[in-house]
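Researcher: Next sequence.
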Amino acid sequence: MAAGYRRWGKGAAAVAAVAVVGAGAASSGPAVVLNAPPSKSANTVVTAQAQAQATGSAAGAANVPQLTAAGGIYQWGTRGMQGLPAATTSGLSAVSAGGLFGLALKSGAVLAWGDNNFGESEVPADLSSGTAQIAAGWLHGLGLKNGKVYAWGNDWYGQTELPASVASGVTAISSSAVHSLALLRNGQVVSWGSRTDVPGFAESGVDAISAGGDHNLVLKAGAVLAWGSNTFGQTTVPAAAQSGVTAISAGYEHSLALKDGGVIAWGHDNYGQTDVPAAAKTGVVAIDAGWNHNLAIKADGSLVAWGNNSYSQATVPKPPVCGPVTGASAGYEFGLVITDRSVPCRH
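Model: Next structure:
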């Protein structure tokens, strides 16, 4: 659902914070998170510190680097909706796969397509320019502009009823099935929708956020902290993820973390979503957990997928997805990537 982003340039560019749905750092610190699918949290997070090391500047949704003009969307999986907007063929800086719809960010404008039974594809006019981050939930969407959160779509659980505290000073957003998170400039997390509780450890000093199905992850000084449902151990953070982590992403009932270029996974494993393949244990620069499958972008621009493959959502289509992949988001039963399809496949 959310997606990791990477900037390409001379010498294998570095991770450029994810600027979709749940993640984003203000020019001063927090990190980027991604979006989420149904009841899952799709938030790929790259901390401001990691981005600064990679790009030489502070991380921040406000300055997510623009990709090459050839950067367009490719979608696959049974739930990969048809009828992509013409504008999604080039110039994209972020994508976010939700339940049955998708969002993309282009030059500050939010693009949406797919199901619209609850108005989830009807983007507020204010987000036609200046938008810094996007996050697609199951049936609702979020946008971040000038530190203010916007929400639209399904509101059965109050997903679009925004608390006053997210009207300004927000640096990151993350959306899941029926709840969402925002990160304030002071490092405080705000939650609304079906889950509104925020533990004391998430009230200050948080660097990144990611909303899952009915659980949440935050990154604080390199350590992953979690709360919410733990039926399948999704909030029982393994020792390996308690230091040195640079990115987080919460799925429906599982969780991911990125450390030293390798993915760490825990929680529900009914579809192999926590069985990290060898290819995702080294060289990874961005991650995104979908409902029951995951995507990881590697430093060479290649994409790795694993987990539920009932509708081929965990099978990377080659061709045409040969890279470099500059953005990726895992949704319910589909995937989205930003890639230059003019680059020929070499294998």
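Model: Helices lie at 48-55. The first helix runs from residue 48 to 55.
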